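ESCALATION

Customer reports they have been waiting on this structure for their group meeting. Please prioritize. Original submission:
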Amino acid sequence: MRLLSYNIHKGIGGTDRLYRIERIVAVIESQQPDIVCLQEVDRNVKRSRFHDQPHLLAERLKALDFCYQLNVHLKAGGYGNLVLSRWPLAAKHHISLRLNSKKPRGAQLTVIETPRGRLHLVNWHLGLAGGERHWQARHLLAHSLFKENEGLPTLIAGDTNDWRNVLQRDVFASHGFEHFSAPPHHFRSFPAYFPLGSLDKAFGRGIKSAHVKVAKGGLARWASDHLPLIVDFEI
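Update from on-call: job pushed to the front of the queue and completed.
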């Protein structure tokens, strides 16, 4: 099975600053994922032509099921996280990861009915400060909605903003998670045109095996300011 995690930057190119959602679609299609975790997905915002990107992407990518979490409100619209799946979502939960008065952040908790059994999937986008990210990770792992399905094989993917690459050591290792996108210098995903930081990460527990790569070629360098992270895994 293949998962793709991608901060799409609202469909705006990282270098030319042009809104071209078709480039995002082409990048995702080229990787043929079964499950897609997206961050910074617009809905009803002027900069992205007031497109309903969650429905547009679900339709263009032929997702059987999807769910959207609006985190940042902008007038009548805003942006947030999106999960797309070729298999049914048996459960869909959204939790806030906002700390005090900082920028709203969130996590999507889903259970996916894959052909190999149920998968507990988390799609999230973390904050810019180290203390904020540590709080967000601990808050997720302690949340009652996360604990409902913690016995299932679990994947956590998304844009962590973890420049220092310390979340695994400081939080996840003590909860039995593996860091699939390590060592960091092999998984640099930001900025897309000249990647320096391994910000897009995947953590797993109860996963038999995982092969991870960053998609660097073709349109991926221009479609967003991040590169997509690809996780091939078995449960």
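Sent to customer with the following note: The domain at 2-88+159-234 is CATH 3.60.10.10 (Deoxyribonuclease I; Chain A).
Escalation resolved.
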